[in-house]
Amino acid sequence: MRVLDLPLTAIRRPLPRQTDPAKVAALMASMAEIGQQEPIDVLEVEGEYYGFSGCHRYEACQRLGLPTIRARVRRAPRSVLKLHLA
Q1: Which of 2, 21, 29, 66 could make a disulfide contact with 61, Cβ separation 3.0–4.6 Å?
Q2: Sequence-separated (6 or more) residues with CB below 8 Å from residue 47
Q3: DSSP symbol at 46
Q4: 86 and 54 in contact (C-beta within 8 Å)?
Q5: Are 11 and 49 in contact (CB under 8 A)?
Q6: Count of H-run helices and E-run strands, the chain
């Protein structure tokens, strides 16, 4: 596993998530002041990145207009991706 700053546009988010607007706003304020403290978790499958967690941090970065997000990247085969999508 490695930690990278990935472009937000490179991360696919295949499952719809509900976010708490108050939590996103609090994260935006924190990130604007001290930056992102905790990476999101991302699967790398055949060179593509898939995000299934960190939806509040991801949305906060998007709304702040940040080009990248810090992510813990774990390589996985397509079979693992299918388990996340089931």
Answers
A1: 66
A2: none
A3: T
A4: no
A5: yes
A6: 3, 5
